[in-house]
Amino acid sequence: MCRLFALTSRDPVSPMLAIKALDVMKEGHDGSGMGLLLQDLGGPFEEMKEAPILSGIFSEEGIRRLDLFMMDLGFLTKYKISLKVPKKPVEGIPRRDLYLIRAYELPEDWDNLSKDDMAVRLSDIRLKIREMGEEKKDMMVFSFWPDTIMIKEIGDPLLLAGYLGLDRKELKARIIMAQGRQNTNYAIDLYACHPFFIKGYTTMTNGENTAFIPIRDFLTSRGIAAYTGYQSDSEVFAHILHYSLVELGLGIDGYKHVITPLQERDLAVHPNAGFLSHLKRTCRSLIIDGPNCVIGTLPDHSLFMVQDRKKLRPGVVGGKPGLYGFSSEICGLDAVIPDRDKSRDIQPMHLDTAIVGPDRQEVTICRQTEALNLPL
Amino acid sequence: MSSNRSLEPSALSLNDLPWQVKFSNDRCTLCGQCTAVCPVKAIELGVFRKRTLKPSIRRQADQGVAQDVFYGIRQKTDVAHACIGCAMCTLVCPNDAIHPEKNPGLDRMKFHINQQGVPRRRGGRRNAAGSILDRIKFTRISMLTDPALDAGRHEFEMRTLLGRVLSPRENMKRLKEKGWIPPVREIYPLIIGGMSFGALSPTMWEGLQMGVAYLNEEMGMPVRMCTGEGGCPPRLLRSRFLKYVILQIASGYFGWDEIIHAIPHMKEDPCAIEIKYGQGAKPGDGGLLMWHKVNKLIAAIRGVPAGVSLPSPPTHQTQYSIEESVAKMILSMSMAWGFRVPVYPKISASSTSLAVLNNLTRNDYASGLAIDGEDGGTGAAYTVSMDHMGHPIASCIRDNYLNLIKIGKQNEIPIFAGGGIGKNGNLAANAAALIMLGASGVQIGKYVMQAAAGCVGTEEDRCNVCNVGICPKGITSQDPRLYRRLDPEDVAERVVDLFVSFDTELKKIVAPLGRSTSLPIGMSDALGIDDVAAAQRLSIKYVV
């Protein structure tokens, strides 16, 4: 089962904090890969919140192709960090040329675009780059979105952090999500590393999603170009989140009703019973049938955690105003925020969605049995 | 027959018959029960003469010939009275002195059975024991990443939807605009398929209905049963149990007069309306209730004279094309119940099933599609239809489901599979395989008759006389002397046993696959088969 750690902090912090948590939870992951998401960035990126940032792994040839492609589209580089790696290879980590984090100036003709149009275009460009790199594996892109950096690599998290030099001052963020992978059901692929990101929505998951194939079939047939990839059975969680919130207009309290709807007897006495039974029926093929713990972020920088109803060992949310951690194991949280009031830790159970809003002041719990904000 | 007379072309010997009655003279007490019970009068009391030679070493004395007469059972060899292997004789024999045996060679009766220019019509099944469904294995078992579910103790929601499910966005839009949303029923995925009152005996039908009512009201399992063509007893139409019933309208419209007249008196809406266009056992043919079974009661319910054969036309003759038919009939039926009842067609599996499905996808009032595969059973069909026509259900369901995925409507039109599910007794495994290939649920008919009433038919052309009303178990007969053999209470009890054990087996399949809160519809990654061609055809894994 993968190990997950996420934090949301008032002040930008180094990703090493989350990686430290992964290392403490090491017993639970096999070190076959790590994914890292940094959002609400600090450091040099603080000044360019609107600029889309491209993150990925490129070969020398790939980067030349990328430059030509981006210039053709009218993007100009605004700022970049190139993670140069030591010449000496490290066991278990593949040899790559360049880890790129590059912020772009938007093309002039994009100025009048609506937010939605811009989201579609940015996502299309990411998909195009990914497609261009598929054949020779010379361009592997993880995200292309403002204020967002993603790093993924095969290997042990702590080794990787040292190898990539993640402990640098330019890399600081207020939201950090990290995952150490254990036994993916599919091939060990770079793209199978969490977190998964789509248009500002991110999730990472532990557990096995046994309903993966019908969910994938549902999502890919929605006619939305970005619903693609699926090297991991967990990638669908991010897309379901996007589908629920953007396509269906639900709030975050509705997400859990989509992936783990209430059972008949609870549904019958729910204040929104009518609406929810419609939701359950129409979104029947998005039911995840975990067991899973899902940690995710929303575009407004809220962080949340939900559990599948079968989950036997829930994750934990705890912290103090200004700094909250979401962890799949308590020891991870203890390592990062040892001075919190542990009596206020929350382990969301099968009906709960634990949310820390963008103000990072408290943990709110949405219970599935409570009335929800209807999009009607 | 003397040895120098010419033989008739159709003169058959015992060895030419598909079933031979083996009889032991030593044990027989000549009680006559076997000859009395035989539904086709294949056996009769026989007088046998035996000549015994008595040789002796002495010249004259003691030498001689003795003539002896003894009584026993003689099997008739004419086609009309050929043994059907039902073994009722064995069942009633107090001394185990008699039993039918399958002729291991090629039975020559096949060449003679179409006498007087009438090809054989039989009830029953296709007589092909092989089943691709039985070869499918469930290969995706969760063991390492998470604890597997406990089939015995975990909560399971094994429900499926019958009815048009709108896309989430469209449904949301109509909720907002307070528009019409098609009716949807949440039902158990194993449905008792259409077997009409008329085809089945009153005791069998009553037993099934009682079993279904018990399952719903006492066991909390929303099991549904389809009536088949031929109407529904008026008392049931006006009762609260109607909600467990799917009313079928077929091309003969038999019994619909009664149903329409009962609409104003209905306390409950029926679960759904099934419009039958085709049946897997006789694709392209209408139903046929032969005159033997049309007694006064059946005639009254169907609104026809007694004692005449009741063929339904191959298609609904009032309509010009399947497109028109599908659209018009679905709309009329929906309208009759104020758009509160799901209406769906049932067709035979064929390479044109897709055409019907494509048609339905564009019709908001279409609530699903039932597809009946070649192994479906029937009350009466020509042998050639049953043995040589039709399409296997597995690949038909798969084609249809994959097509729905292509247009993004896989959750919107439920497909129900029927025809040969559990034909070798593996009901839960066959049903689960079809669900994972894309069916929302399955329909069974033959299996219920076998499991709940002891139908003796097998895939070896055993019995198969359902059409002529001489069912030895009283399941498909309208003759009170026969159907009194069947106690409806016993049938009801067996129906409940059958569903509850199916439920346990289904859970035993889905639990290790990690599924408990939704039916694994389309979970094809869990399936494997040891045949490259089949794996490729069904888009599932090839495993050896």
Description of the molecule:
The complex is a heterodimer of chains A (about 375) and B (about 550). Chain A has ten helices and 16 strands. The two termini of chain A are about 40 Å apart. Chain A has helices at about 15-25, 60-75, 115-135, 155-165, 210-220, 235-245, 250-260, 265-270, 275-280, 330-335, and strands spanning about 5-15, 35-40, 50-60, 75-85, 100-105, 140-145, 150-155, 175-180, 195-200, 200-205, 290-295, 305, 315-320, 325, 350-355, 365. Helix content of chain A is about 25%, strand content about 30%. Chain B has two domains: about 15-120, Alpha-Beta Plaits (2-Layer Sandwich); about 130-540, TIM Barrel, CATH 3.20.20. Chain B has helices at about 35, 90, 130-135, 170-175, 200-215, 235, 255-260, 295-300, 320-335, 355-360, 385-390, 395-405, 425-435, 445-455, 480-485, 490-510, 530-540; strands at about 20-25, 45-55, 65-75, 100, 120-125, 135-140, 160-165, 185, 190, 225, 245-250, 270-275, 290, 310, 345-350, 370, 380, 415-420, 440-445, 525-530, 540. In chain B, strand 11 (about 245-250), helix 7 (about 255-260) and strand 12 form a beta-alpha-beta unit. Chains A and B meet through helix 5 and helix 9 of A and helix 4 of B. Chain A: It comes from Desulfotignum phosphitoxidans DSM 13687. Chain A: One of its GO terms (molecular function) is transferase activity.
CATH class of the largest domain in chain B: Alpha Beta
Q: How would you characterize the largest beta sheet of chain B?
A: 8 strands, parallel
Walk across the major sheet of chain A and give the strand order: 7-2-8-1-14-13
Structural class of chain B, by secondary structure, is alpha/beta
**Terminal Cα span of chain B:** 58 Å
CATH topology of the largest domain in chain B: TIM Barrel
Greatest contact between two chains: A-B, 41 and 41 residues
Oligomer class: heterodimer
The radius of gyration of chain B is 26 Å
What is the CATH homology-level superfamily of the largest domain in chain B? Aldolase class I
- Helicity of chain B, in percent? 25-40%
Strand content of chain B: 15-25%
Question: Termini distance of chain A?
Answer: 38 Å
Spatial ordering of strands, largest sheet of chain B? 9-19-18-16-15-12-11-10
CATH 2nd-level architecture of chain A: 4-Layer Sandwich
Shape of chain B: globular
CATH topology descriptor of chain A: Glutamine Phosphoribosylpyrophosphate, subunit 1, domain 1
Number of helices of chain B: 17
Poorly predicted parts of chain B: none
Overall pLDDT metric of chain A: 91
The overall pLDDT average of chain B reads: 93
